[in-house]
Amino acid sequence: MLAQTTDAEINQIVDRLTLEEKVYLVIGTGMDIPGMTEESNAPQAVVGTTKDKVAGAAGTSYTNKNFGFPAVVFADGPAGIRISPVREEFPDETFYATAFPTATSLSSTWNVELAKEIGSAFGREGKEYGVDFLLAPALNIHRHPLGGRNFEYYSEDPVLAGKITAAFVNGVQAEGIGATIKHFVANNSETNRTELNTVVSQRALREIYLKGFEIAVEESNPWAIMSSYNKINGTYASENEELLNNLLREEWGYEGFVMTDWFAGKDPVAQMRAGNDLLMPGTNQQATAIIKAVNNGELPEEILDRNVSNILKQYYKTPSFKKYKPTGKPDLEGHKKIARKAASEGMVLLKNIDQTLPLDQNVKVALFGVTSVETISGGTGSGDVNKAYMVSVTEGFENAGFELDGDLVSKYESYVKEERAKIPPKEMFFEKDILVPEKTWTAGELETIAENNDVAVFTFGRTSGEFQDRVVEGDFELSEEELQVIRNISNAFRSKNKKFVVLLNIGGVIETQSWKDAADAILLSWQPGQEAGNAIADVVSGKLNPSGKLPVTFPVSINDVASGKNFPGTVLDTTAPKSQNPLAGVPSEEIYEEGIYVGYRYFDSFDVKTSFPFGFGLSYTNFEFSDLKVNRDGKEITLELSVRNSGETAGKEVVQLYVKSPEGSLDKPEKELKAFAKTKNLNSGETENITLAVNAEDLAYYDPATNSWKLDAGNYRFIIAGDSQTLKLEEELFLEEKEVKTTQDLFNPEIAIEELTRN
Ligand code: BGC
């Protein structure tokens, strides 16, 4: 193999490659889909593959003996390294990976140092298991609560999503493997995902959907980007020259390579032209089509050269190219600890009347809920992880030394066993998990349980995954059994002056308004990975003080969500025949009529009541914010303030900076998150001085009429807040009118979108 790695040398190598050799660099070696038959029309794996280099990885590149290029391995995903736990060549060893907390849980920490630490753990684990590119992190916007993959994504806000992504990517890449940020872009629903046309305004794209990617590219330079399945204003992301060349390369100066999502897009030649360098997982048909197009002059060979060179520049940095010999033995013990720590820090205390939590060590706990037994680590599909074990809530409480009502525990265990046996096993790994229906209790039974215990804890859960969005009934909304159990436990315990705690083991937003009054405390644990039970017990017992904040709004009703008007899109031809392939969708269109009013930008601007606002989260202690000073030095605006732990218990606090811009010719949201920081663990009485910095440019809005980012003249309000609706401190600063940056005129929607406005 040539040892050279400079750009010039890579270009020389490209010059010496044959057409066929180039083509086998721009496609992967294919993929078998377990459970998928040939009749179901799934693309088949190509012959002569090296795809089993790491069993269970999502993709592999071709080797090239002439140049000594080894195969490079691509593995998911956002919650851990998704590979097979067994390998034929090592029958006596296992390769279980750590199931880390899901992305939404990680973003709830609002802790960029922690995101970096988690990224490093992914990087080390991937490297020792033979992975060159991690297919994560994923940072699509939580546009609607029912998005089936929201658990894999960070937030409804692009600044939070972008900053957490950048930190995570920096952590992964510091360990010597590549990160792949995905899915680029506006892939916010799963229904018909490969046939979906996302119709979105230039402004909403730039300010909401692209912003997080822009931050991540600028602050972490990911080695790879995965384009998304959907079309954007009529053109598939992977065939979209405006997206991949004009914006990503020309405007943002991106230097890595772009790969498709698995089997995404339709036209390999258009993908090559658009700058989608690598087609994954790769099919023979694609190779044939590209060779033909070059031979007949339809595709200039220089385009292929450019793509190959983009890919090779990154491949040369990989462990495989550097001949690193993976040990197969990452520090799983160490990663377990990091996973537990991050899981606890991502938990959000939504309610806590009269210090219901933390629970006293010597209370007797009646632990309810099928999810206390079958606790959920994460979602399904490519975001799943083959983990060695799962700590349930029951086990976590026992490990923490709580005395549980043993009779109740056994009743749940046998109920779950019986019900689970009735549910047929999944045929394909990416099918949604089916949860055991909630167990109900009679008033008489609950009366006795309340008599025999000091406190009730009820866990319930949700799961979702690829290919499907969530539904309202029994998913966003609670099932009748769940509501009944909540009301009845609450009545039984409260009538004896005993407390009732609800634990939410969910991947995305649910309805909370109608039942939250019945609980004395609500702890949102999200889907916290394999250490779930231990991490939950750490918070419930007070070993750790919760410091998570919501990265997404919890609405009162699903009907209050602005994007609900057209989520998850409209089928374009309802009479079109459906493919036999269960993964294929039908042509559909999703018009983003809410424009920039996503999440809190909508609720706060239109005064729509929420159940829990964006940024919300309680602590076992209190914090005081004081001494806000705003300084401007050229472009940079810095804010200094003090945060003091004024309560009894040590804890961390998140400082959230929102900016309200002055009115101008275009509609603007009430306020927008522009920066955030997390304090260290402050002891009672301790103070930390926090500095936040933003550029005047970060405050700009995008004007599609002039294709530029602009600042209006006027007073900008800098709001330090506890959540998007709780102002703590504020200062004003006058900024001049300014055109901050001009851009190309890209992504013109093919139809006029009637966007929501405040006027
Ligand atoms: C998902 C990607 C994933 C890929 C490979 C696709 O179905 O959308 O996120 O990385 O599969 O597993």
UniProtKB/TrEMBL annotation:
The keyword Hydrolase applies. The lineage of its organism: Bacteria, Pseudomonadati, Bacteroidota, Flavobacteriia, Flavobacteriales. InterPro entries: Cellulose_deg_GH3 (IPR050288), Fn3-like (IPR026891), GH (IPR017853), Glyco_hydro_3_AS (IPR019800), Glyco_hydro_3_C (IPR002772), Glyco_hydro_3_C_sf (IPR036881), Glyco_hydro_3_N (IPR001764), Glyco_hydro_3_N_sf (IPR036962). GO terms for biological process: carbohydrate metabolic process. It holds the Pfam family Fn3-like. One of its GO terms (molecular function) is beta-glucosidase activity. Keywords: Carbohydrate metabolism, Glycosidase, Hydrolase. It comes from the Bacteria. This is Glycosyl hydrolase. PANTHER family: BETA-GLUCOSIDASE. Belongs to the glycosyl hydrolase 3 family. Residues 653-724 form the Fibronectin type III-like domain.
